[in-house]
Structure formats: C-alpha cells, structure tokens
Write a structure and sequence with these properties.
The chain is of the alpha/beta class and 255 residues long. It folds into two domains: 2-109 and 210-246, D-Maltodextrin-Binding Protein, domain 2; 110-208, D-Maltodextrin-Binding Protein, domain 2 (3-Layer(aba) Sandwich). Helices cover 42% and strands 27% of the residues. The chain has helices at residues 2-25, 50-62, 73-82, 95-98, 142-154, 165-173, 184-194, 221-236, 239-246, and strands at residues 28-33, 41-43, 46-48, 65-70, 87-91, 101-103, 108-117, 134-138, 158-162, 179-183, 199-215. The strands form two sheets. Strands 1, 4, 5, 6, 7, 8, 9, 10 and 11 form a nine-stranded mixed β-sheet that branches. Helix 2 crosses helix 8 and helix 6 (165-173) packs across helix 7. It is elongated, with a radius of gyration of 22 Å.
Length: 255
C-alpha cells in the first residue's frame, strides 16, 4: 500500500513537471517595437533587424511562440502598459521604467552623441562644447531626457524637441538647428536613408546598453526568467555576438 502511494505521488509529480514544461514551451509572447533603424524596422510586412533576430533565437530556444508589432512608439509603449503586448524593445534602462518593467540582460551596446553640419569644426569632448547651441532631439524619449540633463548643467542650451528622428536631421541639414543629439547608429542610418551629405558625427556623449522590457503586471516572472536564462546561454555560446556582428554592432559586456 505504501509503495503504491509513493508510486502515485511520483507519477503525479512527473505529470506536473511535464505539464509545466509544456506550458512554458507553448508560451505566446507579443513584442512591440518601433521603426528604429538599424535596430528594428520593416522589410515588406516583416519586422526585421538585429534585435528581432535575437528575440527570435531566444524564443526558438525556449519553444515560445513570439510575434512582433512595429508601431508608433507612444502606442507601442501603451499597449505593453495595458497588457495588449508583453514586452518592448530596444530601450534604455531608467528608474521610471524599472518601476513597471522586468528587464532582459543588455542585448547590445551603443552610444549617444552629437551630429553637426560638415562645415562645423566641433570635435565634441565636453558638454561645454555645445553651450549656446540649438539642439534637435527626438522625444519625449530616453534620448531627450538625457539631453535635458545636459541642459541643466550647461544652462545656455536650447532644445528643439521633434516627434520623430528624421525631422531633426532635416532641420540640421538646412541649418535650422546647430546640432542633433541622437543615438549614433540611428543617426548614421538616417543620414544614409535621406542621403544627407552635409552632416557628420561630432563625438560621443555617453555609452549605453539597450534592453528588452517586460511588463511586470502582465507577465509571469518565471517566464521572463526563462527567457533571460536562454538569452544568457546564447550570449555565452557566441550566438548573440554573431547576430550583432552581421550588422556591425557592438556586443554588451555582461559580467
């Protein structure tokens, strides 16, 4: 009798483990992003780019069913906040976001800096270099908040907040702003896309990592942990580095 009871308990435990494993492997996740070339963009109807490829590989490793939506950034964030999507990328990490998001390990390394017109001799090395400048920036965004912090220190700096990345670079090309503060990779992608031949990169302000953010309210923490464990396995075996290398992007250093 005791032996039969033990066998029953063992069998029930095995069934429970199999059920949980099946549930995890069948997990469906919706990821929101924006038109944020060269990190994420559309080719035809397919959401593409290095961040998408990384997420796809992690989902494949976990057996997750993952879909992607490319939306205006305000809407993309709102959908994650109200539970119409599970996660969003590629984002910087800050205190406000930490209040409502779980974060992945850093998926890549990038930088913010200043772009100027070609005839401007600026070689940016300190925030005092752009004192008196009128600077375009996309926002509200993590990038514009960084520029606002620079303004607090410099004082004499005017911010031209734009609803998209392209308009700031167009204004710079026409001389209507003195500089644009932008992600370096995004800036070069826009310059190439819009064929702006009179703009150059003046220098780095700071480096930062980009992450995937998962809604705390609408995600099971165990699923997020499983996603992150699989990411780290792909990081250690070189898969993440190979994906980023195809796009000439920098791997984030994770200790």
């Amino acid at each position: 009798m005791l032996r039969s009871l033990k066998l029953l308990i063992i069998n029930m435990f095995i069934l429970l483990v199999c059920f949980l494993a099946g549930t995890a492997s069948g997990q469906t996740l919706i990821f929101n992003t924006q038109d944020f070339s060269p990190f994420s963009y559309k080719i035809g109807i397919k959401v593409s780019g290095p961040c998408v490829e990384i997420v796809e590989r992690v989902c494949e490793k976990n057996g997750f069913e993952c879909t992607f939506k490319l939306l205006p950034w305000v809407r993309a964030q709102r959908e994650v906040k109200i539970g119409q999507a599970h996660a969003m990328f590629a984002i910087g990490r800050n205190k406000t976001r930490e209040d409502w998001l779980y974060f992945s390990p850093p998926i890549l390394r990038t930088e913010y800096g200043f772009f100027v017109r070609s005839e401007n001799p600026l070689q940016f090395s300190d925030i005092s270099d752009i004192k008196g400048y009128r600077v375009g920036v996309y926002g509200p965004s993590n990038t514009s908040r960084s520029l606002e912090k620079i303004k607090e220190k410099v004082g004499n700096l005017s911010i031209d907040l734009r609803p998209d990345d392209e308009s700031g670079f167009k204004k710079l090309s026409k001389g209507r702003v003195d500089a644009v503060f932008s992600n370096k990779d995004v800036g070069f992608a826009l310059i190439s896309k819009m064929k702006l031949e009179n703009i150059r990169y003046a220098g780095k302000h700071r480096e930062l990592n980009y992450y995937i953010g998962f809604s705390k309210e609408f995600n099971d923490k165990q699923v997020v942990d499983q996603f992150n464990i699989a990411f780290m396995e792909l990081y250690r075996d070189g898969t993440i580095k190979r994906i980023l290398g195809q796009y000439f992007m920098e791997l984030a250093q994770i200790e």
